[in-house]
Structure prediction request, 239 residues.
Amino acid sequence: MGALSETWFADGYIDFELKKYTLLAYLQDINQHFTQSRLYPQLSDIIFHYNNLVAFRDNKQFLQQQFPKRLTAVNIQKLELLYEQLIADDELMEELESIIHYSLPQLNSTIKEGTEIYEYVAEHLSIFPVGLVPLETAEGYLLLCDGRGRQTLVYTYRLTIFERHDEKYRGIHTQYLQAYKKDLVHTISHIKSMLIRERNNLPNPAVYCVETPLVVPVDETLLPIAKRSLVKYIAQEAA
Prediction:
């Protein structure tokens, strides 16, 4: 099925049965990923579509404020034109309302499934600093270990703060460096020492280790959740 377009419910012929089929095919694809504990980018994508439908239902003017990174000017214009059509076409409005009324519970149910997986993985993460924590923790290294117990994955991380809708959000950017085989030599403390010795751009880095006994896909699940959990951990420690 692939991804839904940002304006899937308004694209082409607006017909309840057609849009219902489109949505169910999309959700079937999402559920296949969730069954294999692959959360991203599927979970963030389906949350976007849910919020997009709610915003469209409640007030089209919220669209541009809420989703500036996903909705283009062309899509905004398309939705505004659709509203103009709805005013003059009761039958079209009724059809679209039926689509939205059906779609929101379907999307919400799938979101809950993904959220349960997310929360389960997050609850089984252990985060701790490696050695002393420097005063500056906005940049450093993330060491990631899962239940396979075979290797330690090393990433650089950089925290960012951005404003949106009169609020400040913390974000994190990571870059994969390398993997070390877990053995008596490559302890997390030794890995930290090697990073400091070999990478002099961060002479006194913050280094955090995230461990879990679970075995889940790294790129699609473990790393995204570890990143969000690390942001929360650092924010709480700084408070």
Remarks:
- The longest helix spans residues 90-123.
- Strands lie at 126-129, 139-145, 151-164, 167-181, 206-211.
- Residues 61-69 have pLDDT under 50 and may be disordered.
- The first strand starts at residue 126 and ends at 129.
